[in-house]
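Sanity check

After download, print the first record. It should look like this:
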Amino acid sequence: MEVREIIDRAQWDGFVSQAQTGHLMQSYQWGELMKRDGQRIVRLGVLEDGQLIAAALVLVATMPYVGTPWLYVLRGPVVDDPSSPALPAIIKELHQIARRERAAMLKIEPNVEEGTPGWRETLRTLGFQPNPIPAHVRRSWMLDIHPSEQKLLAGMKRSWRYNIKVAERGGIQIHAATTPEEREAFYRIYQETSLRDDFTILPLKHYTDILELFGSDACLFLAEYEGQTLAGHLLIRYGTCCWDMFGATSEAHRNLKPGYLLHWKTFLWAKDQGCSLYDFRGIPEVLEPGEEMWNIYEYKRGFGGFSRLSLATHDYVYRPLIYWPVALASRARVSLRRRQRRQWELKRSQRGEGSKQEGIKVEDNEKEGAPSQGGTAAHRG
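Expected structure tokens:
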């Protein structure tokens, strides 16, 4: 068994895309995206008889204020069996990198469903401790798109099917963006959405980089009415799953329900790409009214599907005198924000504004794969 850096894209994606614990954010191109965003990464692989049996795309980040390095494996490492010797082997190599960098901690978030046997026990044995504040949202809404179109429609709420027809009859047109002008139109309504729903977005270049790096595996769909862009979703396919990465809606012509038809067309595109699973991304970790993203959750579940709760974030602490003050401050800040957002969501629901969440994706507050501090809730979807 050998642990070394992997530089061959075909070798990397050939393993990660097919692994049960594989994830888009452990893909080779996601690493390239992080590099374009100015981040440092390392791709580690465990080989046995020349074949990859484990992998970890590692971000080498820096804590703000204190300037101390830390390591982050977003939705990894990719190891299907927690009892495999490949897991401690790759963790050992991560420890070596951490020592060279003088990192304060190593944070991992395997793409494993909560309750999967063996994982928590193994990570505890390896010296990790669960962190109650995830860097990436733990719960997602998923839809099995393997069934026929008729069965997918039947699995939706009746009013969702009706709204798809409303959009079709109202003249909403759905198409893939192909020009810089169309990408800019999407970004304008994305900015509008971020201001309306109080979240931070990245510069337009980040999203155009995604489309460039992922090529035919990524698509930006737009909903238009009489030449006006009303909604958009950026999708990425990896393996047999399609991720609904970024979405936006305009306030204009909401009565025409563009988001419902737009989502339906994205399901069909994902099916045509050979996907069997559609990941809407983030919903509240606690499924109770008033929780942040509750209205988004109600919208997503109207299309049918199920929720998936991922294994908790786990940290390995190297420098406790630096780690704990930052972690405790982060937890206090996140707790305050949750209370504030809960009040905001409850007031919004009382005003009957839940329907405004149609087609909206409350997105990441920071760069994907690079949360601002160890233990912060930087990702929502």
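If your output differs, re-run the checksum step. Summary of this record's structure: The chain has a mean pLDDT of 91.
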